[in-house]
Amino acid sequence: MDIKGLRKEYTNPVLTREMMAPDPFDQFTAWFDEACAASLTEPNAMTLATVDHDGQPTLRTVLLKIFDRNGFVFFTNYHSRKARQIKENNRVALLFPWIGMARQVTVIGRAGKINMAESARYFASRPRSSQLGAWISRQSSVLSSRQLLMMELERMKAKFLKGEVPLPDFWGGYRVFPDSIEFWQGQSSRLHDRFLYRRIDPGWTIERLAP
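-> structure tokens emitted (211 positions)
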């Protein structure tokens, strides 16, 4: 298959500096709401980039579950590869690929664990099946067969047959505290609009970047 001709011409209205909110979290909220209204598939899906001790980057898709002016929160097993890499180097990047709207948001910052109370509140809101899944998945470890995984699931179902499923002590959330947030919108002739917010305490600077 010849892929050189695969391209899409973007037809979005041009973004101007005056159209961008002074605070990037207000701008993110507006775009996130529009992504949800557009019925995009999992608009809260974001690519998380981490780096290991050798400087090798790793990517995976995680789900944004909380965001506010303090940052962007996702949840994971604290023994996972991403968690081990964050422990070694907490500098991370996030990418929201809203391809259906020809938009992207990139977040660069530092990740840190949220407190147990916040994790417990979110864990309690998850479906019971997801709660049980958190208990049985030794994330990123080698698994000899899916059958063993399903056997462990049945064991956990029996263990927590009565009452609520408790929060595992090896599972919880990370908050990414942004140093910069870039908003990208596709435009015709590949002359895309890009606006970069950079944290300059106590506020943010906003710059237009070349496409």
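The longest helix spans residues 24-37.
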